[in-house]
Amino acid sequence: MAGAAELDPAATIQFVINAAAGSSDADTKRDVIESVLRAQGRCGDLHFCTPVQLTGLARESAQRALLTRAAVVAVGGDGTLNTVAQAAHAVGCAMGVVPQGTFNYFARTHGIPADPAEAVRLLLHARPVPVQVAGINERVFLVNASLGLYPDLLEDREAYKARFGRSRWVAFVAACSTLLRAQRRLRLHIETGGTVRDVQTLTLFVGNNRLQLQQFGAEPEDTLAGTPGDGSMAALVLRPIGTLSMMGLMLHGAMGRLGEAAGVERFEFEHLLVKPTLPQGRRGVKVAFDGEVTMMRAPLDFRVLAKPLYLLRPQPKAQAQAAAIGAASPTEEAGG
What pLDDT does residue 216 have? Predict the structure, then answer.
């Protein structure tokens, strides 16, 4: 493919790891990655950092990967993947993923396993494949972006995780808490595909990942060429509803039937311009993308980006080889 990222199998892979060097978490990740690299006869630079250092390190590592025809590999959760993807997409180098989040929709969509040793083994045999990324203003996102209720939900979820630990049940309880006290309404002017309208909503959720939408039970009708994450994106608009209806919404979401809930509108698009009505003197709006929350200036421009991300995606043959290696070396897994 013209313009595809070049990759030298002998080049030193750049690993960006969101964990403070010297911590027990960092030591575990180092042991796993270095063990696999030694077994495969490959070289890698392991760069550990704190969240504050992540953006700068991702840019430096992506630039180094481009110059040496290597790949930059994100090791961490959704926020880490997003930051490294932003850097890799900007320079055009190949990117690998070793996922360590709760849901891992991006990794699962592309066949990347949750087990870190297996994920590293597979990316050593993978080739860069162009995959769709989305943009909101100047930011890249891989899975989703939203405003309104959903950013509040993410902030509550992080607070619950800090108190009760990381699990899907903790995330679900946090979501219930957020939804039951949801009151704030957004007034949005939306332009897409030649259509202009004004809506009131509790949240606008934009999905770039078909797997996540499927698990929500909220896939839109196929009205555009391609599907969310492969040619188009999907928008979900949640109309203002009462407490009883909100409880019904939570039940539908838990059952993977969100699309059947009253007050949920779904549609596909390639480009969406959103102009929120903001209080006088305020220009920014709280936005969430790939699990991170920040303030962005309005209007918000969502679009499928023409330039892809070159992802090291496992091939079926490599997956079978990695499975055989893992079965033959059980002590290596235990030692990670």
Answer: 81
1-5, 15-19, 47-51, 125-129: the lowest-pLDDT one = 1-5
Cα–Cα distance measured from residue 326 to residue 336, given in angstroms and rounded to the nearest whole number:
12
User: Helices in 125-200 by DSSP H: which ranges?
Assistant: 149-164, 168-180
Please count the other Cβ atoms lying within 10 Å of the Cβ belonging to residue 294: 11
Q: Which residue is it, tokens 């969310």?
A: 228
- Is 0.85 topped by the overall pTM? no
The alpha carbon of 120 is separated from its chain's Cα centroid by a whole number of angstroms, namely: 19
Tell whether the model's pLDDT for residue 326 goes beyond 50. no
- Tokens standing for 273? 């311009």
Partnered with residue 73 across adjacent β-strands are 15, 96
Q: How far apart are CA 271 and CA 301, in angstroms?
A: 7
The rounded radius of gyration (Å) of the Cα atoms in the chain is: 21
Question: In a 3-state reduction of DSSP, which class is residue 121?
Answer: helix
Q: Which domains does the chain have, with CATH numbers?
A: 13-132+308-335 (3.40.50.10330), 140-304 (2.60.200.40)
Distance in angstroms (rounded) separating the CA atoms of residues 81 and 62: 13
pLDDT by residue (tens digit) across 30-43?
999 999 999 999 99
- Secondary structure of residue 150 in the 3-state scheme: helix
CB neighbourhood size of 316 (10 A): 8
Averaged pLDDT, 297-320: 87
Tell me the β-bridge partners of 72. Answer: 14, 95
